[in-house]
Amino acid sequence: xxxxxxxxxxxxxxxxxxxxxxxxxxxxxxxxxxxxxxxxxxxxxxxxxxxxxxxxxxxxxxxxxxxxxxxxxxxxxxxxxxxxxxxxxxxxxxxxxxxxxxxxxxxxxxxxxxxxxxxxxxxxxxxxxxxxxxxxxxxxxxxxxxxxxxxxxxxx
Length: 156
Known about the structure:
Layout: E1 13-16, E2 22-24, H1 25-29, E3 34-39, H2 46-57, H3 59-64, E4 67-73, H4 77-87, E5 93-96, H5 101-105, E6 109-112, E7 115-119, E8 122-127, E9 130-136, H6 144-152
Parallel strand pairs: 3-4, 4-5
Antiparallel strand pairs: 1-2, 1-5, 3-8, 6-7, 8-9
C-alpha cells in the first residue's frame, strides 16, 4: 500500500461516471490541490453506500480544508452513474478502475469471496502527484476528522 511521499500511479487509466471515457489518473487529479481518494470494493453494498453518504455529508468540511473527495472502485462507470442517481447523491465524484490499474498501482488489490483484484477499502490524501497520508480501512469508514487534520498540517 502506498504511503506518505510515494508517487501516485498517474498513468493508471480510470473512467469518470460522467464522461464514460478513459483518462489517466494524473489527468483526473490535475488542477486539484488536495484529493481524498477513497477506494472501496463495490457499488450497492451497505458499507460502501454508507461511505458515499459520509463523503456527501462531510463535503462542506472537506471543502473548507481544501480537500475534494473522490470514490473509486472496480465497478463500471454505468454502475456508478446508476448508483449515485438512485441514491440522489451529488457532489462526490466517482471513478471506475475498470482494468484495476489504480488498484494495483496503489498496492491494495486483494481477493474477496473468490473475486480477485478487489480494492481493499482504503483512503489516500493526495497532493499533486504525491501521497501525503494513507489509511487502510478494512471494514471501517474514513475518519474525516483525521483527513482534515492531515490536510491542515500540510504547508499551504
